[in-house]
Write a structure and sequence with these properties.
The chain has one domain: FMN-linked oxidoreductases (TIM Barrel, Alpha-Beta Barrel), CATH 3.20.20. Helix 7 (184-193) packs parallel to helix 8 (207-216). The protein has an 8-stranded parallel barrel, surrounded by 8 helices. By secondary structure, it is an alpha/beta fold. It is globular and about 45 Å long. It has 10 helices and 8 strands.
């Protein structure tokens, strides 16, 4: 699968639900993913910035796959975050970092295991946008080449480099619990520059924000924290995404 293929199949802007394995019990997880499926989410990403066991990761993926008939995509924080039970893995490189561990070394460690597990990799350029007064989890963990919400030129250069590297998609991430999402003007500028699908996540708390992001040109919108903190609100967010038309 490629993101482009899924976009073509769904014929519109997609919503992905991010599940952090250690943020709920398995019973809560089953209920949550069924509700997300009912609301109209298109796929589940499993991962996060926290550390969790291989056993918990496997159990989480299997619970999701048993509960719903949607793709499960790993969103790994390291080479240890792999599960043979998932359908796909975002084979991602954090581009705006000075740390080779997240740029290439974890990927090299993971590659033979991905092959052995027969996981289908989806190459992704992961770019963190700093939109918060206080550092988000990813900003605390990794030394970044900081991209502020007004640094459109810098993010355009990174996104274009990702496309030239042959990455199949670009993910602009404000970070878990960010004060605000990636700004719409930045999204629009990046979408007008690149030809690969654009994924946006982090700091999305309401339908109006989701609508603005969709209209700015996002192909996929990711939410995670809202699922943990206010699941009923997710319905209006997904509805706004599905009803929006890109104005890129």
């Amino acid at each position: 699968m490629t993101i482009n293929k899924l976009i073509q199949e769904k014929k519109g802007i997609l919503h992905f639900t991010l599940i952090d394995p250690d943020r709920q019990t398995q019973k809560e997880l089953e209920s949550r993913v069924k509700t997300c499926r009912h609301y109209g989410t298109d796929a589940f990403m499993v991962g996060g910035s926290s550390t969790f066991s291989q056993q918990l990761l496997d159990k989480t993926v299997k619970t999701i796959k048993k509960a719903v008939d949607l793709p499960v995509i790993l969103f790994p924080h390291s080479a240890a975050s792999l599960s043979k039970y998932a359908d796909y893995i975002f084979f991602m490189s954090l581009l705006n970092t000075d740390d080779p561990l997240f740029l290439i070394k974890e990927q090299v460690l993971a590659a033979p295991h991905i092959e052995k597990m027969s996981l289908c990799p989806i190459s992704m350029a992961y770019i963190v946008i700093s939109t918060s007064q206080q550092p988000t989890a990813i900003e605390r963990r990794v030394k970044l080449d900081i991209i502020r919400h007004e640094d459109t030129k810098k993010v355009l250069d990174y996104a274009l480099a990702a496309q030239y590297f042959g990455m199949s998609c670009v993910y602009l991430e404000a970070g878990s619990g960010a004060d605000r999402p990636v700004p719409a003007p930045m999204i629009k500028a990046v979408k007008n520059k690149i030809k690969v699908p654009l994924i946006i996540g982090g700091g999305i708390r309401n339908a109006e924000q989701a609508k603005n992001i969709a209209e700015a040109g996002a192909n996929v919108i990711v939410t995670g924290t809202i699922v943990e903190q206010n699941l009923p609100k997710l319905e209006s967010i997904i509805t706004a995404i599905k009803n929006a038309q890109s104005k890129e």
